[in-house]
Design brief:
alpha/beta, 8-stranded mixed β-sheet, elongated, disordered N terminus, binds phosphoenolpyruvate, binds magnesium ion
């Protein structure tokens, strides 16, 4: 079509030239599409795909091919590639299906031949599962259809074949429900209502209680409800079922929850999901059948004590995660631990919830051997799915298991110790961002002991959470927008709850095991979660849950311990976690391989201590203004501000006055000047004390102290109440205070009278601060102060401030008789400073890139206002990330790189660091390493993240 329309429009020679070029491109594209292979077969001892084709076959497809190649018992099938999904999204369903039909027909024929069954007909009908699988796992976010190929005809053949009518009918009703929901867009409750009708008519409680006649009735009702809601008969043609099933899976790539999941997990640049069409094996074909999911190591703690997982006898995959039946443990040890945590007696455990090890010892031994083989093959903890059909084990999936940060660290360390991976691989196995989870607080023991325990559920995802309870994902999102911290309580969660799960601080569910949706998603998010708290009865209508004799209503405070499963009423105090063992070892390895220093942004001895504990190698930014708010020193600051302007004006006039006029001005300035000096004199010892504390906490590590930066109005009260208090405290009228506030008002304070501009107007403030720093350094042996001038844009600003700094240092040295080594440098946070870095380096011994302001001024985004629209920018892909969170490497990064090169040209040994928020962001840290900065500086809790990110950058750079 496009080609035809190109050829028919009337155009000149140049136009023809362009047309021919376009035509060639289109023909190339078409040739490219036609030559692609879209379907890869696996099974019967051969695989067309392999683990290395993960991007093309998705994680599931690649590993199925790999497992089949390894000789593991994988039901045969084929994978339709992620490229096909991409084409589904761009060309549309019809075009794609025309394109892949010959390959699908071939693969089906091969599958029939391998299994000796026929798809959708004959005495041995071939049934298949149709499952999604992207290159990065997105658990539960996309669609799956099981038992595909069933219809009234194949059902009869299956009954004759299996001699198990109940199993076949159960599979058929599951298929109608799943296909109806996933493919035909019907709601779960459309079907649940029919199922409940039959259950209540027959007085049965569990699905497994339903007999053949009940199931036949369910099927009849299901078909009727399909017709009623969708307006069409349930499709009986297996080929139609297959095409529609594949279309649904491809389509689910762009369903809202999958998009949200990719956004939340920063999953980008994938082609789409693959579709895996695989021969069905049945875990629900009787009591010698089962299905389960397992982790080769504990995904919560990383422990390698036993094979960690759950299974259900006579069930299909979705039963294990749906939380309807209580899953049983794989190993006897795991089963006993579970029984203890749930207060289930050994007798009851053994008879009602036996482990797979006890119930099917032979299959267990085979599975355990596969566990070992898979770990050695993939050299990582695996998350596996298996089905046992009439005593025969089948592997349905293996992938690197999602894990908590704690588990990631332990598993990486253990795999290295076991010799499976190298030190560098161990470092790369822990995602820097994931450490955030480990660094979060846990409950204070005493406070936890005193708290009222409501119940104990399963410890699904570790950590501690305290918040007000809400009962819907929407309520959680709304509460987050109001700045409230909430706990999301659900009977069980579903992928639709993803936004609320992200918004809350902890998740509590009444149903679901350790592999339930809530547990898996919470672990991935690093969020505290207690699942399967079966004692609680949740009433969404009433907005409450009841547990024992307690009624907990919407908005009440609740605390969760995700490491023990305890649920407490009220708030419980938290404390910083203790970090040692495997964490310490991985961090040591990170330090061994990283090539860039890591400092911290800290303004108090306490923060400095925390940061040093986390491995900070000094302070890269001490913002002195934060100290001005402490205690009653704000009064001295305000006293200074009150007269500063007047002193400045009178002094200016005095410059040009002579004789009597000068004398009059001197008399006039005397009082405000004495007040000005008095305020500075009050502040000096306080600042000195601050720096003394910080230098002591640093124990000889370097400390970059930034001189006063924010505009003065930030130290004044803007609310009437505050202004009244200030007036009272300082013996002023309210009008005077208001006048002062008004006089300091600026239209654009971020570009106003701040940074070194303050020191230029009020040199005594610089003098006071420098004196405090140097006197403190003189009193603490080994201190390494570095004085940093903020917001310099012109070398003359720095020169002017430097003169004051140098003179003051000399004064203190003369007074104390001590030689203090003080480095003097500047922030590079104004674009002009970056561009003239060669000139600035003449005066500066170090640069620290203030990328917060550099981003603000470089991109022209107000730090205060950009939040309102930057979300739209990121959503529309104008900026890939919020540039205040992740350095805009192609824009602001270029300014930084330019300044680095220019600075080094002038002063080869100039020290270069970054202290904007980007100093703790892994991608930005990598950039800083690559352009050769000496250190990054970030908030104390991000220090380990930066250390690990720096090691990742160094190791990746070697490759
Ligand atoms: C910066 O601008 O990057 C910086 C660290 O300074 P502040 O955030 O205090 O302006
Ligand atoms: Mg700044």
């Amino acid at each position: 079509m496009i080609i035809v329309s190109i050829c028919h429009s009337e155009i000149d020679f140049y136009g023809w030239f362009v047309k021919i070029k376009a035509l060639k491109i289109l023909l190339e594209m078409e040739k490219d599409i036609m030559s692609k292979k879209y379907v890869y077969f696996f099974g019967g001892g051969q695989s067309e795909g392999s683990a290395s084709l993960k991007n093309l076959l998705g994680g599931k497809g690649a590993n199925l091919a790999d497992m089949a190649e390894l000789g593991l018992p994988v039901p045969p099938g084929f994978t339709v590639t992620t490229e096909a999904c991409s084409e589904y999204c761009t060309l549309g369903k019809e075009s794609l299906f025309d394109l892949i039909k010959p390959e699908i027909d071939d693969a089906l024929a091969k599958l029939e031949e391998t299994t000796n069954k026929t798809f959708g007909k004959g005495p041995k009908p071939l049934l298949v599962s149709v499952r999604s699988g992207a290159a990065v796992s997105m658990p539960g976010m996309m669609d799956t259809v099981l038992n595909l190929g069933l219809n009234d005809e194949t059902v009869e053949a299956m009954i004759a074949l299996t001699n198990n009518e109940r199993f076949v009918m159960d599979s058929y009703r599951r298929f109608i429900q799943m296909f109806g929901n996933v493919v035909m867009g019907m709601e779960h409750h459309d079907f649940e209502t029919q199922l409940d009708k039959v259950k209540s008519a027959t007085g049965k409680v569990l699905d497994t209680d339903l007999d053949v006649d009940d199931l036949k009735e369910v099927i009849k009702l299901y078909k009727a409800v399909v017709k009623e809601v969708s307006g069409e008969d349930f499709p009986t043609d297996p080929m139609e079922q297959l095409w529609r099933g594949m279309a649904a899976v491809f389509g689910s790539w762009n369903n809202p929850r999958a998009i949200k999941y990719r956004q939340l997990n920063d999953i980008r640049s994938l082609w789409g999901t693959a579709v895996n069409v695989q021969t069905m094996v049945f875990g629900n074909s009787g009591d010698n059948s089962a299905t389960g999911v397992a982790f080769t190591r504990d995904p919560s703690t990383g422990a390698n004590e036993y094979f960690y997982g759950e299974y259900l006898i006579n069930a299909q995959g979705e039963d294990v995660v749906a939380g309807i039946r209580t899953p049983q443990q794989i190993t006897k040890a795991g089963s006993r631990a579970w029984a203890t945590s749930q207060s289930v007696s050994e007798d009851v455990r053994g008879s009602e919830y036996p482990s797979l090890e006890e119930a099917m010892p032979v299959v267990f031994a085979e599975l355990d051997a596969i566990r070992d083989k898979l770990e050695k093959h993939y050299k990582d903890m695996q998350d596996i799915e298996f089905t046992i059909e009439d005593g025969t084990l089948y592997m349905l999936q293996t992938r690197n298991g999602k894990r908590t940060a704690q588990a990631a660290v332990k598993i990486a360390y253990d795999l290295k110790t076991e010799g499976l991976i190298s030190e560098k691989e161990a470092v790369l196995r822990v995602e820097p961002k994931q450490l955030d989870q480990l660094l979060h607080p846990v409950f204070v023991k005493e406070s936890e002991v005193e708290a009222k325990t409501l119940t104990v559920g399963l410890p699904a995802s570790p950590g501690a959470a305290t918040g007000q309870v809400v009962f819907s994902a929407d309520a959680a999102e709304a509460a987050k927008a109001e700045g409230r911290s909430v706990i999301l309580c659900r009977v069980e969660t579903s992928p639709e709850d993803i936004g609320g799960m992200d918004a809350c601080c902890g998740i509590l569910t009444a149903r679901g095991g350790m592999t339930s949706h809530a547990a898996v998603v919470a672990r991935g998010m690093g969020k505290c979660c207690v699942s399967g708290a079966g004692d609680i009865s949740v009433d969404y209508e009433a907005g409450q849950f009841i547990v024992g004799d307690s009624v907990v209503k919407d908005g009440e405070w609740l605390s969760l311990n995700g490491s023990t499963g305890a649920v407490y009423l009220g708030k419980v105090d938290t404390v910083d976690p203790a970090l040692d063992g495997a964490f310490g070892s991985i961090m040591e390895l990170a330090d061994k391989y990283r090539k860039i220093g890591v400092r911290t942004n800290a303004d108090s001895p306490k923060d400095a201590e925390v940061a040093v504990k986390f491995g900070a190698e000094g302070i890269g930014l001490c913002r002195t203004e934060h100290m001005f708010f402490e205690g009653d020193r704000i009064t001295s600051v305000r006293k200074l501000i009150l007269v500063a302007e007047e002193v400045k004006e009178l002094r200016k006039q005095m410059l040009y006055a002579e004789g009597k006029e000068k004398a009059a001005l001197e008399a006039k300035v005397a009082i405000p000047l004495s007040q000005y000096n008095e305020a500075l004199a009050e502040l000096l010892p306080l600042q000195r004390e601050d720096f003394t504390g910080i230098f002591k906490a640093l124990g000889g590590l370097p400390c970059t102290v930034r001189l006063l930066d924010p505009p003065l109005h930030e130290f004044l009260p803007h609310e009437v109440k505050g202004q009244e208090d200030m007036a009272k405290d300082m013996g002023l009228t309210l009008a005077k205070v208001r006048h002062l506030v008004d006089s300091l008002h600026e239209f654009n304070p971020m570009l106003g009278h701040r940074g070194c501009r303050l020191g230029i107007t009020y040199p005594e403030v610089t003098q006071m601060q420098v004196r405090a720093i140097v006197e403190a350094a003189a009193s603490v042996e080994g201190s390494k102060p570095e004085i940093m001038v903020p917001l310099v844009g012109n070398v003359k600003e720095l020169k002017s401030q430097k003169e004051i700094i140098v003179a003051t240092i000399k004064e203190v040295e003369a007074e104390t008789g001590k030689k203090i080594d003080v480095k003097i440098g500047t922030m590079i946070e104004v674009p002009r400073a970056a561009i003239t870095a060669d000139e600035i380096a003449e005066e500066a011994e170090f640069f620290s890139f203030g990328t917060n302001d550099l981003t603000q001024m470089g991109c022209g985004f107000s730090r205060d206002d950009a939040g309102k629209f930057l979300g739209d920018y990121v959503e529309k892909g104008i900026y890939e990330y919020d540039p205040f969170a992740v350095l805009d490497q192609s824009g602001i990064g270029k300014l930084v790189k330019y300044a680095v090169d220019a600075g080094r040209k002038t002063r080869p040994n100039i020290k270069l660091g970054i202290c904007g928020e980007h100093g703790g962001d892994p991608a930005s840290v990598e950039f800083c390493c690559n352009i050769g900065l000496d250190y990054v500086s970030c908030s104390p809790y991000r220090v380990p993240i930066a250390r690990l990110a720096a090691a990742h950058a160094a190791i990746k750079a070697e490759k």
